From TrEMBL:
Keywords, alphabetical: Cell membrane, Glycoprotein, Ion channel, Ion transport, Ligand-gated ion channel, Membrane, Receptor, Signal, Transmembrane, Transmembrane helix, Transport
Superkingdom classification of source: Eukaryota
Organism phylogeny: Eukaryota, Metazoa, Ecdysozoa, Arthropoda, Hexapoda
Chief location category: membrane
Species: Athetis lepigone (Moth)
Signal among keywords: yes
Compartmental location: Cell membrane
Annotated ranges, domain Ionotropic glutamate receptor L-glutamate and glycine-binding: 236-299
Assigned protein family: Belongs to the glutamate-gated ion channel (TC 1.A.10.1) family.
Pfam families given in the database record: Lig_chan, Lig_chan-Glu_bd
Protein name: Putative ionotropic receptor IR
GO biological process, one term: detection of stimulus involved in sensory perception
Gene Ontology CC: one annotated term: plasma membrane
Single GO MF descriptor: ligand-gated monoatomic ion channel activity
Length: 683
């Protein structure tokens, strides 16, 4: 309200005869009444949220009349510029006013500038920096300087516009009155070398002659116009099938494009950017231009872009993106470790804590067996001494069954033998030992059955793979990370996550994904892209290796690693279709894309695009329950350990025999039984 009061103060100071070139126009108030009629039509037929008025001092008097009185129900944001202002680089006050109009959501712009060059520079600035809402409805004065070939790209973006061309009353004709011609841009027809506006209506005597709709939806039916569509081969968005004659394109975004072409009635003309294999999406060059797919969009050569464009501020600055039709998991393609754990086959069935528990039970049970055996032996000795000293007979079978556990070493050994389901050579005497033996056998049966079942599963299935599945594991692996484009590197460098920043420090860009896959197979690289595309290059590389020279493949097989897609997503990024900057096609295209997503067609097309790849991946990674020699490394290692320990014990016994036993003064090789009997008595 304060702005309106200040505005009226300015208008009261202005004089109507200040600009004599527009004296007739001001006196008749034709432009005032025309604007009132246009705004009333807009408010009646369309939803007007706010009106932005941009004028100079020449046309300031237009707003001194009844315009605001007859349109009090709609808010205004007014910007008055000086005639010397360069609107390609406006001053701070003008810029803030334009930003306020965009922030308030003004969807109607009334631009009355006497200088057509000044108006054209305003349009160029507003389009470049998105200060003006190009999809709003515009009312401007007709000026031939607005139709120069350098501004033709503007009229591919601002299509909801009415040009007001004033025709004076001809002298000598009594019935001839001044009138306005209302015209618009010829969208969707392409503008050739000369801009020819299309007449919409004529306003005369405060009345519209044809009473046609002023702002029709020009994008609902494009009348079969040809739209340039630049594409980039990137699975699953765009899948290019090459043949001898031409390339056949398919994929999710191609199917969406065909749906839009059918509903909006246009014909797509797909093509690839120059050197697309090298430049791909494209980057900013030294001269300020862009290469690749983005270069076609920035230069205006393409209307639509297909190529798995991420919904990021970087792409939004250069193009317009549709609503996301899917969200992709972006992660790393990493190498699998070459570590072979077949030698650990015997210990793999149980975890570490389970093995510790088994060992503790073995030691504790063996000690209990030894204690019970010693107690029973002492009881037998006591009973025999009590009966009669002359009845004691030194016989090896005097204590049947107790020699099994009479010594701590034998007790542990026989307890270990029961754990391996080896029968005792003789049933022990003593009910305490027998009861403990029975319950220990039940424990051994349960433990052995579990061990055998787990061992069977390990031998039947492939060896477990050692993979990288988290960012922390990737950072700790010291593998060089990389991907395509400097924007991917900037994403990691500017991240707030510590691990992402460390990845950004050693991130290297690479152009060829198959070359990156080869580096990953060498175990020195990790490639960053979406998970579907990583599956594609993995399968493609395997297929390429299968058709290569078999000798070379065999030579590299032992040095190369399997490829693994990291299970954790670094980020889930929305994916969209690109339109040229400030494209009028985006609003209606968003509606159709939303419907396509809601009915599930995008998911169906994604499955179709990835079906062949997933089939090859499944057939190659099929689990085969086969037994081979490599899986028995653990058994041979255990056997080798047993041979080694036995040989060491044998060598120790021989050393003990020759150095200690044979040098004993009481040693007699002809009476060894007497030697050992006397020696045992001493002990």
């Amino acid at each position: 309200m304060l702005k309106i009061l200040i505005l009226w103060g300015l208008i009261g100071v202005a004089k109507q005869d200040t600009f004599p070139i527009l004296k007739d126009l001001h006196e008749r108030k034709d432009l005032d009444f025309l604007l009132i009629d246009l705004i009333n039509v807009l408010m009646r037929d369309y939803e007007v949220t706010c009106i932005a008025i941009i004028c100079d001092e020449v046309y300031l008097n237009v707003f001194a009349g009844p315009l605001f009185k007859r349109t009090v129900s709609v808010p205004f944001v007014m910007t008055v510029v000086e005639d010397y202002d360069d609107l390609l680089s406006p001053n701070f006050v003008t810029l803030e006013s334009l930003r306020a109009a965009r922030k308030e959501g003004c969807n109607v712009y009334v631009i009355l500038l006497a200088n057509g060059l000044q108006a054209s520079r305003l349009l160029r600035f507003g389009d470049r920096h998105r200060i003006l809402d190009t999809r709003a409805k515009y009312i401007m004065l007709h000026d031939f300087r607005l139709f120069h070939s350098d501004l033709h790209y503007i009229w591919r973006r601002i299509v909801n516009i009415i040009f007001l061309k004033y025709h004076k009353k001809l002298a000598g004709l009594t019935r001839n009155n001044a009138w306005f011609e209302l015209s618009t841009v010829p969208f969707p027809n392409p503008i050739k070398s000369i801009f020819v506006p299309r007449r919409v209506d004529i306003w005369k005597n405060q009345n519209f002659h044809y009473k046609r709709p002023l702002f029709v939806d020009k994008t609902s039916n494009l009348n079969g116009e040809v739209l340039n569509v630049v594409y980039l081969d990137h699975v699953p968005s765009v899948v290019v099938t090459k043949n001898n004659v031409s390339n056949k394109i398919g994929g999710v975004e191609v199917e969406i494009l065909h749906t839009l072409a059918e509903k909006m009635n246009f014909k797509p003309r797909p093509y690839q950017a120059a050197n697309a294999e090298i430049h791909k999406w494209g980057q900013k060059q030294a001269n300020g231009t862009f290469s690749g797919l983005l270069g076609e969009m920035v230069s205006g050569g393409a209307d639509v872009a297909l190529g798995n464009l991420q919904y990021t501020p970087y792409h939004l600055e250069l193009t317009d993106l549709s609503i996301p039709y899917t969200s992709q998991c972006w992660t790393f393609l990493t190498p699998e470790a070459l570590t072979d754990n077949s030698w650990k086959t015997l210990i793999l069935p149980f975890k570490l804590y389970m093995w510790i528990a088994v060992l503790l039970v073995l030691l504790i049970t063996g000690t209990i067996f030894y204690g019970l055996a010693k107690s029973h032996m002492n009881l037998q000795d006591y009973m025999q001494i009590q009966r009669a000293n002359n009845l004691v007979v030194e016989d090896s079978d005097a204590k049947p069954g107790l020699y099994l556990f009479g010594e701590i070493v034998n007790s542990i050994l026989y307890t270990y033998g029961m754990l391996l389901v080896v029968s005792l050579p003789r049933l022990p005497v003593g009910w305490s030992i027998r009861l403990l033996t029975g319950w220990y056998w039940l424990y051994c049966i349960l433990l052995v059955v579990s061990y055998r079942a787990s061992m069977t599963a390990i031998l039947a299935n492939p060896a477990p793979r050692v993979t990288i599945d988290t960012l922390q594991e990737l950072v700790d692996s010291k593998v060089t990370c990389g991907g395509w484009g400097t924007q991917a590197k900037m994403f990691f460098e500017e991240s707030l996550d510590e691990y992402s920043q460390r990845i950004g420090e050693r991130f290297q860009t690479i152009d060829d994904p198959l070359q990156a896959a080869d580096k990953v197979a060498q175990g020195v690289y990790a490639y960053y892209d979406n998970s579907d595309f990583l599956k594609y290059i993995t399968v493609t590389r395997k297929k390429h290796n299968s058709t290569s020279n078999q000798t070379e493949v065999t030579a590299r097989k032992d040095t190369q690693r399997n490829l693994h897609i990291m299970s954790d997503c670094v980020v889930n990024i929305p994916i969209s279709i690109g339109f040229h900057k400030n494209s009028p096609l985006k609003p209606l295209a968003d509606i159709y894309i939303r419907r396509v997503v809601e009915v599930g067609l995008v998911e169906k097309w994604l499955n179709d695009a990835m079906y062949h790849i997933r089939t090859l991946e499944t057939s190659e990674d099929e689990v085969k329950a086969l037994m081979n020699l490599k899986k028995l490394y653990g058994a041979f290692i255990a056997l080798a350990i047993g041979y080694t320990l036995s040989a060491m014990c044998l060598i120790g016994e021989l050393i003990h025999w020759h150095i200690i036993v044979k040098r004993d003064p009481n040693f007699d090789k002809y009476a060894l039984d007497l030697y050992y009997r006397n020696k045992n008595k001493k002990h």
